[in-house]
Structure to design on (521 residues):
């Protein structure tokens, strides 16, 4: 079976599912010394709901239950769900107060511990890291992780002037993985810059200027990067968009690929209009043995790490790097005893091309090689905070095929803000699962002071142009003052907006008045 991850760039590695005698020897050789609390993933499921009639569409909580049951089937022991001691749900864009209790009850494990997460694309990997530690420490032994979104159905209902009916759930979580934290500060809020659609293209243009590329060189390069993601999605049976698109189609605005924010047309944005659910079942080696779960299904989290960059983008030293990715990603690899050259499989969080480039640069990944195993959030599908559950499920599939492979998952929440990492293999690690929070190292890095209402001369650090109805509507400009402080400004000058979407404006001089209006020169 040709490995989908390889995207046709490498020879067939002859991967096949067999009795896997060599794998069983490896597991058996370590069986006598392996910690019985070693955490493993034993069940996975992904589901894409594509129904023509919205009245036939399942709501998110039902998709979670479907995915959980499929993950139990994947273990070979469907009855395992009644023994769950923890049900952990990733926060979605739905209206449930607390769906984990409802899910647990429907699955026959009403007494299970209930854990939730705040918003953030980092929280699936963070939840796996937490679950691995809880299992290793003996706090839990059989855990379900699940999440779902129905953006596709919601879009259809909105167009029809309708709303989705949600099952009422009640009760509180026993624990939350983290607390909510604002991702925008007063400086950004003063200019109404509070959306990923606005902030990630600002990062993108800063990357272009830092690399010394022209506007045309840059758009060609990142469209080629995204075409590689599309090619991987074509080979991923779980991807939402499996039709392969070339770089020219991805970068060229059209009726079906409208401009969203310079330099991104629609096909360079996360595709949130998807109905997708996923589930992971994690347990200890002791539980897997008790259920006689086939060792060929076991996949081991080797290590994990986490950190966040400054919550306020305005306080970051620059707009094209991420100390948190640099330190946390490297620590996850170090804890696993690996370098990037040891990785066979990588899935870099891919809400926008800028997120991929920053992560790949900080981690030292070769950007000429595949950086996704799913097709990313544009083509694989972007079920908001739950995307990484799909990338981990895919990692489990692929490492089961070739147990010697080692894979890295990166996860990102906010505006390149919150980061979590995980290293996986179907080969047992030489030591217990390792985890590190490297926040203290990130906090020691330089930051920058921001100003809410600056009045005076500035230099453009980066910018974007927001579109509406196919036309530029608003320019958001990140500016540096003469003493190196950062401020934000807007412009609605139509001629200036057209020029900003055609020429390089980073590095140009301008002025900002006290109300945040930018003028050139």
């Amino acid at each position: 079976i040709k490995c989908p991850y390889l995207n046709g760039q490498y020879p067939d590695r002859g991967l096949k599912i067999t009795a896997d005698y060599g794998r069983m020897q490896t597991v058996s050789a370590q069986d006598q010394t392996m910690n019985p609390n070693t955490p493993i993933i034993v069940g996975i499921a992904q589901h894409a709901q594509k129904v023509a009639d919205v009245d036939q569409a399942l709501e998110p909580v039902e998709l979670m239950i479907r995915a959980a049951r499929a993950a139990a089937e994947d273990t070979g022991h469907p009855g395992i769900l009644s023994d769950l001691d923890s049900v952990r749900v990733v926060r979605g864009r739905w209206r449930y107060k607390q769906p984990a209790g409802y899910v647990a009850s429907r699955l026959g494990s009403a007494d299970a511990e209930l854990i939730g997460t705040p918003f953030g694309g980092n929280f699936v990997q963070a939840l796996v890291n937490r679950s691995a530690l809880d299992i290793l420490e003996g706090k839990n032994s059989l855990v379900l992780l699940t999440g779902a979104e129905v953006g596709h159905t919601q879009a259809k209902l909105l167009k029809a002037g309708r709303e989705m009916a949600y099952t009422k759930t009640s009760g509180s979580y026993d624990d939350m993985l983290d607390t909510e934290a604002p991702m925008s500060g007063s400086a950004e809020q003063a200019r109404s810059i509070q959306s990923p659609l606005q902030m990630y293209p600002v990062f993108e243009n800063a990357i272009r200027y830092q690399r010394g590329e022209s506007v045309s060189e840059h758009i060609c390069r990142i469209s080629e990067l995204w075409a590689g993601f599309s090619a991987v999605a074509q080979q991923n049976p779980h991807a939402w968009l499996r039709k392969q698109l070339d770089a020219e189609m991805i970068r060229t605005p059209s009726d079906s690929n409208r401009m969203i924010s310079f330099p991104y047309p629609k096909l360079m944005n996360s595709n949130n209009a998807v109905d997708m659910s996923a589930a992971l079942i994690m347990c200890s080696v002791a539980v897997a043995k008790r259920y006689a779960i086939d060792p060929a299904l076991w996949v081991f989290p080797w290590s994990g790490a986490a950190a966040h960059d400054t919550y306020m983008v305005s306080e970051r030293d620059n707009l094209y790097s991420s100390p948190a990715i640099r330190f946390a990603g490297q620590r996850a690899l170090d804890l696993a005893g690996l370098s990037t050259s040891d990785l066979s499989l990588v899935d870099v969080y891919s809400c926008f091309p800028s997120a991929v480039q920053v992560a790949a640069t900080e981690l030292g990944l070769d950007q000429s090689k595949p950086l996704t195993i799913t097709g990313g959030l544009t083509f694989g599908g972007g079920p908001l905070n739950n995307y990484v559950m799909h990338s981990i499920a895919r990692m489990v599939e692929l490492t089961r095929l070739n147990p010697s492979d080692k894979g890295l998952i990166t996860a990102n929440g906010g505006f390149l803000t919150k980061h979590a990492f995980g290293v996986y293999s179907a080969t047992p690690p030489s030591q217990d699962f390792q985890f590190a929070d490297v926040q203290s190292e990130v906090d020691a890095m330089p930051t920058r002071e921001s100003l809410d209402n600056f009045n005076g001369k500035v230099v453009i650090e980066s910018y974007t142009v927001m579109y509406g109805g196919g036309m530029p509507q608003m320019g958001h400009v990140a500016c540096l003052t003469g003493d190196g402080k950062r401020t934000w400004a807007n412009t609605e000058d139509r001629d200036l907006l057209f020029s900003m979407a055609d020429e390089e404006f980073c590095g140009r001089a301008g002025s900002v008045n006290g109300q945040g209006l930018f003028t050139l020169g």
User: Anything to note?
Assistant: The chain has 16 helices and 19 strands. Confidence is low (pLDDT under 50) at residues 1-19. The longest strand covers residues 456-468. The longest helix spans residues 215-235.
